[in-house]
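Q: I have 112 residues here and want to know how they pack in 3D. Can you give me a structure?
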Amino acid sequence: MKPEFKITNKPEGSSLIITGDLTVQFSEQFKNQLNKFYPKNDKLELSLVGITSADVTSIQLIHTFKSFIKSNNKRMTVLSPENSDVTELLKKTGLIKILSNEVPEISINKNK
């Protein structure tokens, strides 16, 4: 399923909400959305709640974005996928650690 991206901006922070497949064939779209999302606010939220699949390409983009965020003194929260298959895959492959453990300012929150 083709992903959909929605950026919301509020005084308390900006959110990038993603639904659908976050896979290599959509990586250019994802990268462009991350670039649009970045300058909006100092407090960012990346919602992966609605993704239905993910691959290493999307995790690499998130990791690179996360490093960029840290180097620019911004904060980001990542909301984990609701799809249990995606979450389980991320846990089993260790990719979930890329999203949560390396940068203290970035946390994985269970769905709101």
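Q: Anything worth noting?
A: The two ends are 24 Å apart (CA to CA). Strands lie at 4-10, 13-22, 43-54, 75-79, 107-109.
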